[in-house]
Each structure stands twice: as structure tokens, then as C-alpha cells.
Amino acid sequence: MASKAQRVEVGKRQLELSNLDKLLYPDEGISKAEVIRYYLSIAPTILYHIKGRPLTLIRYPDGINSQRFYQKNSPEWAPEWIESVPLGGDKKKDYVLVTEPASLIWLANLASLELHQTHSRKPHFDRPDYMVFDLDPPENSDFKRIVETALLLKEHIGQFGYHTFVKTTGGKGVHLVVPLEPDAGMSEVFEAAKAIAQPFVRKHGDETTLQIKKNARKGRILIDIYRNRTRQTIIAPYSLRGVPGAPVSMPLSWEELETLPDSAHYHLRNAEEKIQSEGDAWEGIGGYASVLHTRRTAGEQTHVTPGSPYHKSPAQLAEYGKKRDFTKTPEPGSARQTDRGNNFVIHRHHATRLHYDLRIEQDGVLRSWAVPKGLPHRPGVKRLAIQTEDHPVEYLDFEGSIPKQEYGGGDMWIFARGKYTLTKEKKNGLYFRLESSGLSGEYRMHKTSENQWLMEKTDQPQKDWLNDPVSPMNGNTTAAPPEGDYIYEIKWDGIRALFSLEDGQLRIHSRNRNDITEKFPELTEAAGSFRATCGLFDGEIVVLDETGKPDFQKVINRLKSSGSSAIQKMSRRNPVHCYIFDCLYLDGRSLVADPLARRQEWLADVIKKEMPFRLSETVDDGEALFEAAKKHHLEGIMAKKKDGRYLAGKRSDLWLKVKVRRTVDCHVIGYTKGKGSRDFYFGALHLAEKKEGAMKYRGKVGTGFNEQSMQQVYEELVRLETAGKPDLEHIPDDAETVWVKPELIVEVSYARLSDNGLFKEAVFIKMRTDLIL
């Protein structure tokens, strides 16, 4: 890439990027261009954490092997749109604030590899919103020591009523971060951190210390609480480190920390894939904010909040009370009063018309809006929000069924619940940030009439679930239905697909991410099957025979059909149905981190009855369902953990396939010439199974074919390009074999594997055209 300056557009900004081919990590061959690309690719996620936070930069203009320098002051020549804030008493520093992707890229162009954040964010620069415990190991320490200590410290911190998050530093240690309500000053937070750490260190004095001087640590792990002081910083989540390997400070789940090999495991070239496939492990961190434990008694005192022209006090909930008969409805009838009101809840409300209720806590009540189409899912989408009567704060916890004859009668679920920050308020509008598991982002609302508002999302999500490529989750195989906390359902023998619904338009993608929408017009015409405005659903397309069993060949014929007239003809002759068994995204909120049991509840309400789309029913008795599958000659069943999350694009034991007979998908790598009745076709297929990215020879299959399948397979074989004999273990030296490129996939069943890994009693079942098209 040329080193000359290049003009680029990032959002609404014009930037000049220079020296893009300069190697900033010489040993890894990582140029400034790759660093910029990394920060741009993860901008939505890292901005969620650093936006509005004063930053200290560590710049490496000539790469990590040359001089580095710290920078706190925003350069005098910074563009006018780069925000900054003066902090620091008499000797103020003009700290940079990253507010948009363009400012992040501007910093990356300055070779600001490391972004170190302060503990507070706009507008509360004097009040931290987290407390940090930095675990710093001695030289040459085993990372397992850090993990074990972190787990013990997490348990200890939990006794003080906090929720603790963890991330690697990208160096040797880890950070334990406790989200806080921004109520207390930095010195008070430091004293609280010390009060937590001291008894822990006394108990684990052989392994840990609070001594910051290295010669006093004596091989122990430093519990560094001194980061909790004015103008101290920590490396920002997802920031690079300026050391060999280009490691990243990576937020983790606690489960992943237990198996992590070292703190520098994630780096510039694998971090983005983790974020895209697994999401942000710290999503909604602000929703878990707690009042500092040393001041909770004062924080729990109640008082009456006076009314105002725009907000009502609990005493002014008359309109709410007039509309309800509290002897009949389970809704709360009184209001709790609190000092701090920064909670929010969104209800999915299946009343006369399905809608969502957004409620934010202000002045002792919940300001409430009905949002008919759900929250906007990306910038540019505006949703009508109708302001309703204020509700009591007890509604934050309410979930249930309101009697049909009562006001608002119908089922109501908590769709999202967490904390919000009001970032700006105007006479006819407000800007706010929501933080919760599954739904976090920034929004603005503008009042257009007496009770009507327009709601819009202002930040770009890291993943656009409705339009970005998404691969479905897959399960492993087991011989019998597992025992435990599972639900069980039929394993449908059809075409696996993901269904993206966006404002009434439905698109269908195969498991290989191919767009197959036009193949199934009866499904796209039935977009109204869903009680949703937007959603991403996982299911199986099937053609049912006269007995109600799936006919795989007929649905494959539908997939292979082309031309509008032929597709319409096939849709009338062999109409399809789709059994939906999971929901990844719904009306502005990702559901992948929700437990399966909860996602099943959403599906049961979302899918209308007697439509081409059907809910894949589940049962609790796996043994009985498996016996029924055997009796009716079905492929098998699926066992799924009730508390399991959805792992897009991954294979996991959270889902288990229990097949009536062992089956596997194999690549055809060759075929023998046919004899006798098969003289015009082939004798047997040579098979190889892909295991952990490598091919393993599995032998031949020559049974299970009928005249129709024999002809169909042969037609595919002769289209394949011939190849040399594969270099695989145990492959025979067969002069009668035609070797081909492994592009055709077939499903076979077998009794067992031989000692050298070949199938015993292999039987052809079908071509897996759905894995190819």
C-alpha cells in the first residue's frame, strides 16, 4: 500500500490517512493500515465502552520497536470536531474524548495503539462508574495462578453485593471491573476498594499482596487497587497493546477465563472474529451498576420528589390508578420512592394490539411510551412512540397476564431491563443510553405532538443481525437421549435456513449463507405469520408427505428448481412448511444470550397458528419422543439445554442430535466404475469425512441406492472435475476408481467404525444438496 496520504470518509467526516504501509508491529508484518482496519471494524463495540471517557494515549509513530510516548493533551492541530475536556485542577490537561468512529480512526492514524481510559465518562467526570482490581503477577508466573486468584476475588467481591466483570489486560494479568452508579468521588471509591481488598489479602497472604513496590511483593500477585485514584487509567476494553504479537485487552465471560491459556491469547488478527461470532462479553455492563457498598444505607433512604412541568411525583399517579381495578389486575398499585432513578424496563405487551412499552425511571415514577413496532434496530429507522400515563416504579419488576377485560388486558413480558443514562434533554426531546443484557445502545426521542414521539437509534450496532451474514448453530451427536435439564424436539429432515424479517420483508438464507428467498414464494408471502416487525429465526423447510412425514427429496427438488414459472408450479405441487425452533433477534434486541427456555417463550407468542410457519413443538420426555421417532421411521430427535445460549456459527454440546441410526455427511472423493445392472452408472462411492479441518478416509458406500437416486448421484458425479488420487491414510490402490474433487456431499449411515477408521455397514441415505447450493 502506498505511503502517500489518502483522503477517506468515515461517517460524515473527511480524514487524511498517512503512511499506511508503515509497519507498526514489524515481526508480525502488521502495518498502520491493518491497525486502522481493526479499530474501524470493532468501532461500534469499543465505542460502547470508551465513548465520552477522557483518554490517555500511548503512541508508537515508528512502530513498537521504536520510541513510544504518552499523550494526554489533545493536539493543537486536532480537527475541530475532535471533542476534548480540560481536567486536572491547576495544571489541566485537555483530554481527548472519542465520540464517533471517525475520532477513533483519527487516533489510530496517529499510531495511538494503546487507549487508556479514565474511570468516569461524560457528564460525570468527577464520579467514576466502575471500580477496578488489577491483578498483576510476578515475573514468569503461571497464568493459572492469576485465573485461580481472579475467581476467588470475584467470589469475595460478590459478598459485598457487586456484579463483577473480567477482561485480560493484553499483558500478563487481568482486570476485575465492578460497575458503579456514578454517585461517589474517586477517593471514596478507592477507600471502598481498599475495604474489599484488605480482608482478601489477609486471607490469601501467601499468594496476594497490596505492596505496590516490586521488591516487597516476594513472588506474590499484586491486587492493584491504586488504579482507583484520580486521573488513573486502565487499558480500554478491546484496545491493542504496543508489544509483540499485537495482543488485545479482551473482555471475557468467567467461564472462558477458566480455560484461557494466557492473557495475550487474543490479538489483532483473531479478536474481531470473536466479537462478531460471540458478541461483547461486557454488553450491558452499566445495567449491573451498584451503589457503593460503603454508602448504601444513605442511598436507600427515601424522600418525596417534587413534581415538575415535565415529570410527575408518585402522588400524581392518579391517571394510572383510574384506569385499573387493582382487585382484578395483578399490576402494582403503589409507588416506591428512591433517591436515584436510573432504571428502565421494556415490556413486550400482547394486548389488543401487540406493542412494546418503554419505561424510564424519573422523579419517582416511570415515564412510559407505547412503541407499536418495537425499538429501532439501526440508525435511520424511526419508530412511533406514544406517551402513556406514568407508571409506578414497581412496574420495573412486573411480568404477568392482565385480565382481558381490564385496561391493557393481555400477556406482558419483560423484554429488557437495566440502567439508562439521560445524556441530553430538551424541551421537545431527550437523548439517552440504555444498558442491559441483549439490548444496549443510544437513542433519541423527539416529541411531534401532544403525546406522539419519534424514536431513533443513534449508534451503529456491531452486528446487524438482519442484514449481516449469520451462520446457524449446530449440535454434536450422541447415541441416546441425554438426561438432565433438556427439552426435546423432532429432528426435521429438510433444509436448514435462517429467516430475516425486516419491516414486513422476509429473506431466506441457507446454512451456507446463500440467498434462497425466491425458491419458496409461499413462505415469503406468509411474512405475516410472525407477530413481529423485525426478527431473525432459525428453522427447517420441509415438504410433508400424505402421512405428515418430511420428504427430503421433494424439498431438495424445490431448492434446485429455477425460473419463476417452474418455481410457482413446484410450489403448488409440493408446498413447503417451515418449522421454527429458535429466535436470534426480535424487534430491536438480540436474544442469543438469553436461555433457550426464554427464547422458546418468545417464539410461542411470535408465531401465529395455522400458517406455513409453525412452531417446532418441544417435550420434556426425550426417551418417549425418541421411541416415537423410531416407530415412525423419522431421522431422530434433538436434545437442547434449557439454559443454553445460541452460539451462531458454532457446534456445541448445548444441542445434541440423537439419530435413530448413526449418520454423517461425507465428501465424495471418487467412484468405482459400475458393472452389471450398474454398468451405466457407478459401483460405489469413496468417502472422506472432514474432521477438525482435515479429511479422513472412511471407505466406500455401495448400498442404499435405488434407480432414481443412482441416476441423480451419477449426474452430479460426471459434472465434477477429475483429480489425482488423494493422499489420505488407508485409501486403497484401486485402478478402477475415478478420483474427483470433493465437492459433492452425501449423507450415509453406518453401524460402527473399524479399527482403521472405516465405516462398517455403510448405507447411502441421500445427497446433501442443501450443503452445496
Can you walk me through this structure?
The structure is a single chain. The chain is built from 15 helices and 42 strands. α1 runs antiparallel to α3. The chain is globular. About 3% of the residues have low confidence.
Question: Could you give a short description of this structure?
Answer:
Helices cover about 20% and strands about 35% of the residues. It has 15 helices and 42 strands.
The total of helices stands at 15
- Any idea what the shape is? globular
- Mean pLDDT, all residues: 91
Task: Work out the helicity level.
Answer: 10-25%
What are the segments in which pLDDT stays under 50 over at least 5 consecutive residues?
Answer: 298-315, 334-339
Rg calculated over all Cα atoms = 30 Å
Report the sheet with the most strands, covering strand number, pairing sense and barrel closure: 8 strands, antiparallel, barrel
What separation lies between the terminal Cα atoms? 36 Å
Strand content: 25-35%
Spatial sequence of strands, sheet with the most strands: 17-18-19-20-25-24-23-22
Number of strands: 42
Structural class: alpha+beta
Question: Strands, helices and their partners?
Answer:
Layout: E1 6-10, E2 13-17, E3 23-25, E4 30-31, H1 32-41, H2 43-50, E5 54-59, E6 69-71, E7 83-87, E8 93-97, H3 101-109, E9 112-117, E10 130-136, H4 143-158, E11 165-168, E12 174-179, H5 186-203, E13 208-209, E14 221-224, E15 234-235, E16 251-252, H6 254-259, H7 271-278, H8 296-299, H9 318-322, E17 343-350, E18 354-362, E19 365-371, E20 382-392, E21 400-402, E22 410-426, E23 429-435, E24 441-447, E25 452-457, E26 474-478, E27 486-490, E28 495-502, E29 505-510, H10 521-524, E30 534-542, H11 552-560, H12 564-573, E31 577-586, E32 589-590, H13 596-606, E33 613-615, H14 622-631, E34 636-641, E35 651-659, E36 663-673, E37 682-691, E38 694-701, H15 707-717, E39 737-749, E40 752-753, E41 759-760, E42 763-767
Parallel strand pairs: 13-14, 26-35, 31-33
Antiparallel strand pairs: 1-2, 3-4, 5-6, 5-8, 5-9, 7-8, 9-15, 10-12, 10-14, 11-12, 11-16, 17-18, 17-22, 18-19, 19-20, 20-25, 21-22, 22-23, 23-24, 24-25, 27-34, 28-29, 28-30, 30-31, 31-32, 34-35, 36-37, 36-39, 37-38, 39-42, 40-41
Helix pairs in contact: 1-3
